[in-house]
Design goal:
This protein has three domains: 95 residues, no CATH class; 126 residues, no CATH class; 143 residues, Phosphatidylethanolamine-binding Protein (Alpha-Beta Complex). It has four helices and 24 strands. The strands form five sheets. Strands 6, 7, 8, 9, 10, 11, 12 and 13 form an eight-stranded antiparallel beta sheet that branches. The two termini are 49 Å apart.
């Protein structure tokens, strides 16, 4: 395990459920109730299924395999994870009570979509950790702060549930395409390093351990305890980057609510697809103070920020199907399930630059906000706030590449 910070096992392991008889009055085996599982496991779990079977030999007369899922603590307030497990309980022949006898992790999903582009600082890393990342480039005894920013493109975490390093409370993963920029800001100046991240682990306590590798070596950083998430503007100031009013700091913008009736069963409705009607989604939001215009932007975030929709409106409601022209709205047509995120950006007035190309690769939402931030009169500060809503879309047929 990374950092020797995780206590293996779970407090409730092998505890006896003495409060629950395993047999009914008629003598038939009775499964454990969901309430009993939740109480004994010591965590707010969702019980998905029971699989009870009779045993003919040994010290137990029955076994109940219970499938559960639960959400762990958010990592750094940004990264939620969902864990699935099978719990095993055995019914003692003599005790007639159910005993917790083991567990197996069957799935782990981590939503790391908020990490790309995020900024962090580490105030109290040990000299050994700093030496692993910077070698002897940091003068001995120098005081300073380590800052790092994840790149805007980040690979997903691929979990190996058969990894022998896994414990009931810690799960290891690999990742590709994940990197960061590390900056040491000390009294002698600024030192920068490129970071590569290929592996790590997550825990039920909300720890996210990442193995940072530079040209000097590697070190394990726990995003929950070693680092603090900070605004991008603070990062730029601390690391000597240029800070001016032409750049939009998205993590400092107010966020408002956007609603839609065009999401059904957790997915964008089929008619929103380019080959299924190409009907733009219904959208509603409240007027934002000081805004005369609103930019509507829809991006396929599962690819390299494929731009599906861009328009400027002066109202706060759009009907479903209000846009059908593919030069303005080219709805989803992915080869598989992709996530499409929609942004409503409150603007002081019309932006100066409207040169976005629809149905093509483009920059991420942060780069688009920088363009929108310049008003038609040439002044900056045009972006006031934004709202967002996202959902997956799955094409009924594979239309990818038909255009």
């Amino acid at each position: 395990m990374y950092g020797n910070k995780i206590t293996a096992g779970i407090i409730t392991a092998f505890m006896t459920l003495g409060f629950l008889s395993g047999c009914s009055e008629s003598g038939t085996v009775r499964e454990i109730t969901d309430a009993d599982v939740i109480s004994s496991y010591g965590r707010d779990v969702s019980v998905k299924a029971h699989n009870i079977e009779n045993l003919s030999d040994g010290g137990y007369s029955a076994k109940d395999t219970i499938s559960i899922t639960y959400m762990t603590d958010d990592i750094g307030g940004l990264v939620p994870q969902t864990v699935s497990k099978d719990l095993e309980y055995h019914l003692g022949n003599s005790s007639k009570t159910w005993e917790f006898t083991g567990e197996k992790t069957t799935g782990c999903e981590v939503d790391n979509s908020k990490l790309p582009g995020s900024c962090w600082k580490c105030d109290f890393l040990s000299p050994d950790t700093l030496a692993s990342l910077f070698g002897d480039e940091i003068p001995s005894g120098e005081q300073g702060v380590l800052y790092f920013r994840f790149l805007k493109k980040m690979g997903q975490f691929a979990f190996n549930l058969s990894n022998e390093k896994n414990t009931p409370s810690e799960r290891f993963f690999g990742t590709v395409g994940t990197g960061a920029k590390a900056v040491w800001a000390g009294s002698s100046g600024i030192i920068e390093k490129n970071i590569t991240i290929t592996e790590g682990s997550v825990t039920d306590d909300g720890d996210l351990f990442l193995v940072f590798t530079t040209d000097c070596g590697n070190a394990v950083i726990d995003l929950r305890t070693d680092a603090l998430n900070i605004p991008e503007q603070e990062y730029d100031k601390a690391t000597g980057k240029e800070v001016d009013n032409s750049k939009v700091y998205m993590d400092s913008l107010p966020v408002f609510e956007v609603t839609t009736t065009s999401i059904e069963n957790g997915e964008w409705r089929q008619p929103s697809g380019l080959k299924e009607g190409n009907e733009s989604p219904e959208l509603t939001w409240a007027p934002y103070e000081g805004a005369a215009k609103y930019a509507v932007i829809m991006i396929d975030t599962s690819t390299s920020n494929w731009l599906c929709w861009f328009t400027i409106v002066d109202k706060t409601h759009l009907d479903e199907g209000e846009y059908t022209d593919p030069s303005v709205y080219a709805g989803p047509y992915p080869a598989e399930t992709h996530i499409y995120e929609l942004f409503i950006v409150a603007l002081r007035t019309d932006p100066q630059d409207l040169s976005f190309v629809i149905d093509a690769l483009g920059g991420d939402i942060r780069s688009k906000l920088d363009f929108l931030n310049k008003a038609s009169d040439g002044s900056y500060g045009n972006v006031l706030a934004y709202g967002t809503i996202k959902a997956p879309y799955t094409s009924p047929e594979l239309y990818y590449g038909y255009r």
